């Protein structure tokens, strides 16, 4: 979900569908989006769109991915 949000904003329903967890839409919204502080939300009509709050999360993920890639045996 985070990687998707790095490139575009999504509603919880769109994220859940793209990640194959459609049945967890409300849980994803409450736990992953609103409480963690990594995301901002913007309401447009009845839809709420989420996106990354700042560049810190992207840098953090880049570090994790580079660390993991350095340990993968080819």
TrEMBL record:
InterPro entries per the UniProt record, alphabetical: ArsR-like_HTH, WH-like_DNA-bd_sf, WH_DNA-bd_sf
Protein name: HTH arsR-type domain-containing protein
Domain of life according to the entry: Bacteria
Biological process terms in GO annotation: regulation of DNA-templated transcription
Native source species: Posidoniimonas polymericola
CDD domains linked to this entry: HTH_ARSR
